[in-house]
Specification:
The chain is of the alpha+beta class. It has 3 domains: about 200 residues, tricorn interacting facor f3 domain (Immunoglobulin-like), CATH 2.60.40.1730; about 90 residues, Zincin-like, CATH 3.30.2010.30; about 130 residues, Orthogonal Bundle (Neutral Protease, domain 2). About 25% of the residues lie in helices and about 35% in strands. It has 9 helices and 24 strands. An 8-stranded mixed β-sheet has the order 6-5-9-3-2-13-16-15, with no helix packed on it. It has a 5-stranded mixed β-sheet with strand order 18-19-20-22-21, covered by helices on one side. Helix 3 packs across helix 4. The chain is globular, with a radius of gyration of 22 Å.
């Protein structure tokens, strides 16, 4: 049998919403990122080593990377030709790659957010530090990657910066070293992780232990917000316990909350981490629902990652419904009351959104969040509490650290219901008109 002729890997993905992000012909298994960051100059010097697996012999392939200077690229330890333009690093190795191979990229520059239709996303400067908010296309603002949610890999991230700063990054802290004027932090993430959920947070922070176990929970905050944090994050261990009861075991080794010293419009989820602005801690638990929402994403979006962006309701609808479940279980408003309120509010808006395929412009439309939660509440009413929560726990267990689609959830829901739910899901997911809550 003859050998396969080498082909060129695609510089696009098959994502119908974001085809220019992601690349074909290979999958990344592991990222080794070594970053030196100078806060005052906003200067990043990076070395990324990617271990990847080619689907078939590749004569060339591409990575996503924004406007850095790239002095060198090695493939399997040998210098490779490359071309860097328009957010793509096109690489031609000296010999075609087949099976498992490594790519080393050296890069340097001033990281900046990626402009997108949803605003600027990615690496961004704070007043005194930096943050990463990559959803959905910001990861190439700070490291070369295959930027698609379905390409999940493990990570080892090493960050060196000035000694006064704390670094929080995706993963479990495995080492911390200090040298003249700098400190190096090493984090490792063993669970498969998409590039948009990989994060680095740098600031003058203090650590507050929220819970030592069974899931270690830590908040990294500015010292001035310590008192507010005690109030606003004081129920976090109870929230974790409640969500584990609803959704099954927490899917990662630990959980970090980062609160920046700057205000942020919205919180940000990352793998094993959530990021909030100083405005989200006011000492009155005003934003506790957001704390619940971001924690719920560790199951829905992070452990269970959507196969492509059409399925985003599986992230946001489930995280929103978690807010209502926590409200109900903690003595607040019942989930049914939240559902009635939001059903009326969504019904008052134009019926012009298809939940299972909203289009890229509406990926973060509020109705994705609220109508997504309404689907779940209506399903709960349709099949009953016991089958509903059994469904959620099997959903998270069956697809732990994998990718998911709407069709997979619909199929599993039908099995738990013991009846045909096709008309129910067609009305809620595939039609523009909003069904009644009892439909």
């Amino acid at each position: 049998m003859g050998l396969s002729k080498p082909t060129a890997g695609a510089a696009r993905s098959d994502d119908p919403y974001l085809p220019t992000h992601g690349n074909g012909g290979y999958r990344v298994a592991h990222y080794e990122l070594d970053i030196d960051y100078k806060v005052a100059a906003n200067r990043l010097t990076g070395r990324a080593v990617l271990t990847a697996v080619a689907d078939a012999p590749l004569s060339r392939f591409s990575l996503d990377l924004e406007a850095f200077r790239v002095p060198r690229v090695l493939v399997d330890g040998e210098a490779a030709k490359f071309r860097h333009r328009a957010g793509k690093l096109h690489i031609t190795p000296d010999r075609p790659v087949a099976g498992r191979f490594t790519v080393e990229v050296r890069y340097v520059g001033n990281p900046a957010p990626v402009a997108s239709r949803w605003g600027d996303v990615g690496w961004d400067e704070l007043t005194d530090g930096a943050l990463v908010a990559s959803q959905p296309v910001g990861a190439p603002s700070w490291f070369p990657c295959n930027d698609h949610p379905s390409d999940k890999a493990t990570y080892r991230i090493t960050v060196t910066t000035a000694a006064p700063y704390t670094v929080a990054a995706t993963g479990v802290l495995s080492a911390r070293r200090r040298s003249a004027g700098t400190r190096t932090w090493v984090y490792e993430r063993a669970e498969p992780t998409p590039s948009y959920l990989v994060s680095v947070q740098i600031g003058r922070y203090e650590e507050v232990v929220l819970a030592e176990g069974p899931v270690p929970q830590v908040a990294v905050i500015p010292a001035r917000l310590r008192r507010n944090a005690a109030r606003d994050l004081g129920r976090h261990p109870a929230i974790m316990t409640a969500l584990e009861g609803f959704f099954g075991p927490y899917p990662f080794a630990d959980y970090q909350l980062v609160v920046t010293d700057d205000e942020l419009d919205d919180p940000i989820e990352a793998q094993g981490m959530s990021i909030f602005g100083s405005n989200h801690l006011d000492g009155r638990r005003t934003h506790e629902r957001l704390v619940v929402h971001e924690l719920a994403h560790q199951w829905f979006g992070n452990s269970l990652t959507i196969a492509d962006w059409r399925h985003i309701w599986l992230n946001e609808g489930f995280a929103t419904y978690a807010e209502w479940l926590w409200s109900e279980s903690s003595g607040g408003r019942a989930a049914a009351a939240h559902a009635r309120e939001w059903h009326a509010r969504v019904a008052a808006q134009p019926a012009d959104l298809v939940l299972a395929d909203p289009g890229p412009a509406r990926m973060f439309d509020e109705r994705i969040y609220k109508r997504g939660a309404l689907v779940l509440h209506a399903l709960r009413g349709r099949i009953g509490d016991e089958p509903f929560f059994a469904l959620l726990r099997e959903w998270t267990a069956r697809h732990r650290h994998a990718t998911v689609t709407t069709a997979q959830f619909v199929e599993l829901a039908g099995r738990h219901a013991g009846t045909d739910l096709s008309a129910f899901f067609t009305a809620w997911l595939d039609r523009r008109a909003l069904p009644g809550l009892g439909s």
